[in-house]
Each structure stands twice: as C-alpha cells, then as structure tokens.
C-alpha cells in the first residue's frame, strides 16, 4: 500500500512540476517578447526624434517616406498600447495633421485613443482601426 501511495505521489508531483515549468516557460517567452517590443519602441522614438531635431527637411518626400517606412515597420511588431504612444508621438510632433505623413495601410487595431488626448486635425486615412476606441 505504501509503495502505491509513494508512486502516486511521485506521479502527481512530476505532473505538477511539468505544468509549473510550462507556465514559467510561457511567462519567460512573454517577458522576452515584451522586452523586444520595448526595445523596438525606444529605438523608433530615438531615431525619429533625432531625425526631427537634426535634419534639414529640404527633401520632404524622402523625409516623409523614411518616417512612413520606419513607422509601418515598427507598428507591425508592437502591441496596441505602444502603437497608441507612437501615434501620440507623431501627432504631438506635428506629423499627423494635414497630408504630410501617409500612414495608409497601418494596422491600428485595438488601439485606445480615448482619454485626455486632444487630437484635433488627426489625419489617418486608409488605416485599420478594428476594435479600436477613438
């Protein structure tokens, strides 16, 4: 009887350890993805900030094309919360008022732009806002 109880305990303990190990592995993967997203977000903000501050914008076409390319690329890798901050950054930088920066095709699904944000003149035609709150 005691060997059966010990055997059962060992099996249950082993299964619990495997479940805990799988859960920890998933948490580690999520943390790694979040760190990658944060790195991409920070690199984008730094790059565009430097471009805005340190570049002569005589060639507007190339200027906006570069920002469009960088923005669409980084948006694909970010979660909705960070996408919101990208849009706010671009808006506050004056790039999303009028027709200067074309972000058509941007996927802004699930982004929540509700709250204390005053976004007068926000211009984002042909963007995807599925399940977004604006």
UniProtKB/TrEMBL annotation:
Signal peptide: 1-21
Keywords in alphabetical order: Signal
Name recorded for this polypeptide: Uncharacterized protein
């Amino acid at each position: 009887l005691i060997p059966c109880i010990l055997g059962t305990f060992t099996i249950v303990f082993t299964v619990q350890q495997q479940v805990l190990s799988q859960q920890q592995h998933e948490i580690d993967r999520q943390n790694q993805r979040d760190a990658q997203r944060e790195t991409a977000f920070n690199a984008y903000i730094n790059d565009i900030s430097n471009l805005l501050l340190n570049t002569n914008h005589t060639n507007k076409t190339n200027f906006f094309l570069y920002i469009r390319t960088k923005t669409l690329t980084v948006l694909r890798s970010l979660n909705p919360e960070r996408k919101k901050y990208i849009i706010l950054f671009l808006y506050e930088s004056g790039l999303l008022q009028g027709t200067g920066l074309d972000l058509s095709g941007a996927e802004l699904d699930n982004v929540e732009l509700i709250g204390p944000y005053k976004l007068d003149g926000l211009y984002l035609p042909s963007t995807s806002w599925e399940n977004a709150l604006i």
